[in-house]
């Protein structure tokens, strides 16, 4: 800690991070051990966070992330969309296919930004807010694949007909963006994805990642 930072705020943020990393919540004792502070300090931190709905405690006394975090999170998507749109627009125009930025939302993939090409006679309709399981479609599978790969090896994922009959998808994961897990991809009506699309999607994902850093 430096003179310019707040120890209490730092501890409160550490509590939120610890709770976000568990599905079962944490007790006061567990938080006390992980933070290296006494239980009284933890009680005060939790009481303050509860007042802002950032933390809730269940009947068993275990602390969990509260619904107030969701309200904060909803404000992140517009900022992410704004940063991603230039790269998505370039990708859509270059490939002639609908481009999208997809982020992880629990066990689902959530499209938060979509750009359609302006010059094609037809293209796949895809809307922001569209959800699908992470293990279906190129966007989700690219994210899952990135979890298994070594850092710096993004690669790309191709799928056919998994979300819409006759539609192909190509997607590459975002790499090196702290706190954001997602992918950039395109969806098109085709039997196969043209060879150059994969590399172009990786390039667009890198551009979006740089814009978000």
TrEMBL record:
Alphabetical keyword list: DNA-binding, Transcription, Transcription regulation
Superkingdom of the source species: Bacteria
Ranges where the HTH iclR-type domain occurs: 6-67
Q: Does the keyword Hydrolase apply?
A: no
Question: From which lineage does this chain's organism come?
Answer: Bacteria, Bacillati, Actinomycetota, Actinomycetes, Kitasatosporales
Q: Which residues form the IclR-ED domain?
A: 68-213
Q: What is this protein called?
A: Helix-turn-helix domain-containing protein
Under the heading Gene3D superfamilies, the entry gives: 3.30.450.40, Winged helix-like DNA-binding domain superfamily/Winged helix DNA-binding domain
SUPFAM superfamilies, sorted? GAF domain-like, Winged helix' DNA-binding domain
InterPro entries for this protein: ArsR-like_HTH, GAF-like_dom_sf, HTH_MetabolicPath_Reg, Tscrpt_reg_IclR_C, Tscrpt_reg_IclR_N, WH-like_DNA-bd_sf, WH_DNA-bd_sf
Q: Does the keyword Cell inner membrane apply?
A: no
* PROSITE patterns with a match to the protein in the record: HTH_ICLR, ICLR_ED
């Amino acid at each position: 800690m430096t003179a310019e930072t707040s120890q209490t705020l730092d501890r409160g943020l550490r509590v939120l991070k610890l709770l976000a990393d568990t599905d079962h919540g944490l007790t006061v004792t567990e938080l006390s051990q992980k933070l290296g502070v006494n239980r009284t300090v933890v009680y005060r931190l939790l009481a303050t966070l509860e007042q802002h709905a950032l933390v809730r405690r269940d009947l068993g006394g275990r602390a969990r992330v509260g619904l107030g975090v969701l309200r904060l999170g909803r404000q992140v998507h517009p900022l992410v969309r704004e940063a991603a749109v230039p790269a998505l627009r370039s990708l859509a125009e270059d490939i002639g296919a609908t481009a999208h930025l997809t982020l992880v939302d629990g066990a689902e993939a959530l499209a938060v930004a979509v750009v359609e090409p302006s010059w094609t006679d037809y293209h796949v309709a895809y809307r922001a807010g569209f959800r699908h399981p992470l293990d279906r479609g190129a966007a989700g599978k690219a994210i899952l694949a990135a979890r298994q790969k070594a850092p710096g090896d993004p690669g790309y994922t191709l799928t056919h007909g998994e979300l819409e009959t006759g539609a192909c998808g190509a997607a590459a994961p975002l790499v090196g963006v702290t706190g954001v897990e997602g992918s950039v991809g395109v969806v098109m009506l085709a039997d196969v994805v043209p060879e150059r699309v994969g590399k172009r999607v990786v390039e667009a994902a890198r551009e979006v990642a740089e814009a978000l850093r």
